[in-house]
Amino acid sequence: MAEREHLAKTTLLMTCRLVGGGAFIVAAAMKLRDVPALMLSIESFELLPAALIPFVAYTVPWVEIASGLALIYGFWSRSAAALAGVTYLVFTGALASVLLRGMEVDCGCFGALTGGGPVTWLSVVRNLVFFAACAAVMACGGGTASLDCSLESRVPESRLDRFERRPGTDPASAAAEPAS
User: pTM of this prediction?
Assistant: First the structure.
């Protein structure tokens, strides 16, 4: 039974990594294909000063690619999931703010892939699903089918664990003893 649970957990975590990271890779690729359209989309949300829009438009897709690839491969899984999760929450907040203000804007989330549809509550739910996938990886790590796990198994024991402690060789105890 333990083996079955382990396989289920590994499969679930791999799926979460692929969903959270894959969505970022696809979204970033679509955004980078038409950065001027992304800038217009960001501007239409009316959340950022005009001076920041080009910086955000050129930076966010690369952050999405980096964290998406790290998530998919399971490299620094928890950190990548945290970065992606926070980014999904920021995007979700922006989407919800547009809806609550009664604005009708193009999401811009997946560029031309989605055909430029308006922001809906379904967009918010979609992002929350992506966030949930990242939250699972933040909580449990990348699983055994990740680079993290692969690399951990190859890391040698720390120097402190390799050597047997002998009386008088512990630096902490030597500092506590008065000098003679």
Answer: 0.76
